[in-house]
Amino acid sequence: MELQFEWDQVTAFVRQPDGSLFSWFERFRCFHHLLYRIVNRAEADLTLKFDGKEIQLQINESLLKRFEDEGIVKQVFPLHDEKKRKQLLKNWALNWFDFTSQPVDEIYLYYGTKIATYFSFLGMYTRWLFFPAALGLALQLIDFGSMQLVVLPAFFIFIISWAVFFIQFWKRKNSTLLARWGINCSLSEYKALDTERSSSNRVHADHEKNFDANKPIEKKILQRDEWLGLLLRIRNNTIVALAIICLQLPFELAYAHLYEITESYILKLLLTAVYLLAIQYYTQIGGKMSVILIKYENNQGEESSAASLVYKVFGLYFMQSYIGLFYHALLHRNLTTLREVLIQRLIVSQVLENLIENAYPYLKYSYKKYKAVHKKKHEKGSSVGKTIRLATRVEKEYLKPSYTACIGKELEDGLFDDYLELALQFGMIMMFACAFPLVFCFAIVNNITEIRTDALKLLVMLQRPVPRTSATIGAWLNIFQFLIVTAICTNCVLLVCLYDQEGKWRIEPGLAAILIMEHVLLLIKFGFSHFVPEEPAWVKANRVRNVVQARDMYSKQLLRSISNLEMKRN
Amino acid sequence: MELQFEWDQVTAFVRQPDGSLFSWFERFRCFHHLLYRIVNRAEADLTLKFDGKEIQLQINESLLKRFEDEGIVKQVFPLHDEKKRKQLLKNWALNWFDFTSQPVDEIYLYYGTKIATYFSFLGMYTRWLFFPAALGLALQLIDFGSMQLVVLPAFFIFIISWAVFFIQFWKRKNSTLLARWGINCSLSEYKALDTERSSSNRVHADHEKNFDANKPIEKKILQRDEWLGLLLRIRNNTIVALAIICLQLPFELAYAHLYEITESYILKLLLTAVYLLAIQYYTQIGGKMSVILIKYENNQGEESSAASLVYKVFGLYFMQSYIGLFYHALLHRNLTTLREVLIQRLIVSQVLENLIENAYPYLKYSYKKYKAVHKKKHEKGSSVGKTIRLATRVEKEYLKPSYTACIGKELEDGLFDDYLELALQFGMIMMFACAFPLVFCFAIVNNITEIRTDALKLLVMLQRPVPRTSATIGAWLNIFQFLIVTAICTNCVLLVCLYDQEGKWRIEPGLAAILIMEHVLLLIKFGFSHFVPEEPAWVKANRVRNVVQARDMYSKQLLRSISNLEMKRN
């Protein structure tokens, strides 16, 4: 039931951590609504003049929207709050001594739930990494002598248990965060709510058309839609999988093979450079393709499209990041190359990536600024001299790049890239833990710098991002869980490789086939439920409709009884 | 917000399938409440006389409760509705030609959600069984020649996919049932609601004591309670597991071994009889022990205790039912004995069980009736002759046994036994599918008779059970899913046994150890999340409290504004 907000009922609301009444997301939405609600309320069309152009504003047309269409208003974006930004810069981005702890509440207040969730996940992940890192370091330094045979499996079991605990405790932490931010529902309810919100809108629309899922015809339509959607999703996933297997896999294997047989160091470096360039291109095209494919799926709401996209793009990057490692580890049992490549990936590319991540926006900004100043100078003529600067803060911030994902800005913001980076790192350290226990230490160093560079990027380099509601890590959680299961299998194979250096262990082809079949079936068992939803679409539509109807009826009745009382009073 | 039910607002309610306003459960609760609300409203204690006894009824004491304590009222139970019972008997229990389809709505109206859910699950399960049964029969009859090697793995893959589909589609069916019965929430919400209902009561109690989970002390108490509860649960599960492994396992193995080496058929039969007697005793004691252990866990609400009990008792029966089969199949690779035992279990014991299930209550009833008649005869003296009968229907139904579980009636009703039987059968047919594909046919025959005998038992033999709210199959779903995963592993081992009759396949001890480790880790990965809940207890308490508080505040404010209006009116 929706009631108007009245100032004297203010005590009924839960306050934000800083004492204000509305969150940054809510305020942003209000501003947005206010700005776009400036419409032509006159009886006739209005004619506006600007820069010699004449603009005809129709009745009830939004002024700002028109200006945007005409190109007079170039962008609507939230500005940085200089005072808070400086404070955050001091407390957070430049506070190098708090290795993993961050002022999450302040981040939430400044950036909204989604970014705060990312940083608190990153912080917790890094904090938890200290355990395996310490153990990995111990394994590397101490010589266990005859116990060496038992130590590695023990480490493996520890790592998997650690990961399982970590994921579960992250869920608990996420629940705590929800409670802290005044979101009054449990984690699973929150997820359900997300998808419901969008379908509720649809139902509202259906409701007006007198759509009733109880009728057999409408039920049939909904059922058909659901299965059609499923088929579309399967088709798209097949396309992506085929593209990965038929196009990417041979390329990756070719690179790994060439790397394996090349002996000169310079050639290797050259090869890697060429490979990186090519694969960058391929994954970008793949990402764009995925975005296009997503549009042809009728996903239930934005959240589900985002998840579908995450799975597809992760598939691409999974192949890119790990297939070479698998090649070295499993096919050639070449653990030295594996370690080499792991170090290279974790240190060199991540340092480079962090540098690029920060330098690229800065360079872009500088170039834009230079161009803008140049243009202004040109306009005002050269007579005024060299003292021309960008006058306002707004102009400066407009020139800064916005926080967007590499795969386009429609569905996701820049957090997509950051989560992707994190998931790939997690996969790397988990799947090859047994081959190189030191890998966890590199990951820690990486993540501690990652926290600060990401913070700096957000605070200094980019426009203030538009706040988003999502307060969980969404589909990435499933990806992390999938990586744990994969890690169990790969580490087992690695252990076999390690203990069987001479290749004496024989495995009958029949037994191998049965083992592979077992793993495929386990995958089916645990993967299938992600495909077919628990609740048929028509039941869901019905349920949401019932809720809406009950609410409507209830509030109508209440209002009627109140107005009855008022009528009697008069 | 709770409002009084008013007759003129009746259109706002969703009707039951038969057009009545309240479900059988709601009506039962109302009757119950009305009966027990007859209290002494006088200013002083009342003295009642009955059969020469004097009973002092204190102020505000419930009359019926007192009568129950004194033994005047022996039992309060719902009576059968003769008209509807006869109709159901005709449409359902004796309608042998509708093999698996049942009048679910009528069952729901007569018995409530829980029993209707059981029967619709049983019906769907039996219906789905036709696919693998047909395939299993084909496998048995047709000679595939050289293709035989490929046929069995294909059958295995089909069976697992079938089971996975079945479970997912059961969830969908359950959602549909919820919608049909006017329960307006999704399956996962429904589960959450179940646990919430009980904790909400606790919070209400806490609320009165001014308990606030925001305060650090109370938060600490709740956190301590949660971890203590977890430790208690782990301790109890360890006790059960140890009892199973140390007491039951040797016994079971001894029986299986003796069965294996005994050659005389009569000795085998004798052995089985002794074994069945002993194991019956053991499982009953185990069940009772589990119920006692449960009481020392601080489970959140009844639903969670019931689940905990289900897991423990199933552990006992799992060992009892399958370990012998494993012994024959894996250790001795003796597939003929395995098949023999399977047939024996599925046909002989299930037929016997069905007979006992129905005959035992009938005999009990007859005996009780005989005794009651005898007693009456005795009381009235032998002069009246032999025409004494039980006068009223109430007396007759009182003598019928009630619908209780074998492990005691506190937590579960008779459905526990029925679900247990079903789960054990499912495990049997899934886990040994590859050794004996015909097993599915036996299961179908079994289930078709099971539907009718269970219906007969409920309609004819027993008292009408007290309706229960639960509208899902609860923890049994997890058991079914666990059985599917186990089936994947056992069938793989069976396939190895089948294809490697000569025992030529060698597996290195190192490789075997790694494989076992892998499976244990996979079990940890998929089992752990059942142990630690996603949401910390204090967050949950806080959330529920917030909801309660908001509701209270909201309704108070509303009432205040209405009364303000009324005051102004006067």
From TrEMBL, chains A, B:
Question: Where in this chain does the record put each Anoctamin transmembrane domain?
Answer: 107-545
In the bilayer, the protein is annotated as: Multi-pass membrane protein
What Pfam families does this protein map onto? Anoctamin
Q: Which domain of life is it from?
A: Eukaryota
For this record, the Gene Ontology CC terms, alphabetical, are: membrane
Q: Where are the transmembrane segments?
A: 148-170, 239-259, 265-283, 422-445, 475-499, 511-532
The UniProt entry, under PANTHER family, shows:
ANOCTAMIN
This protein is called: Anoctamin-like protein Os01g0706700 isoform X2
- Recite the lineage of the species: Eukaryota, Viridiplantae, Streptophyta, Embryophyta, Tracheophyta
Gene behind the chain: LOC103712944
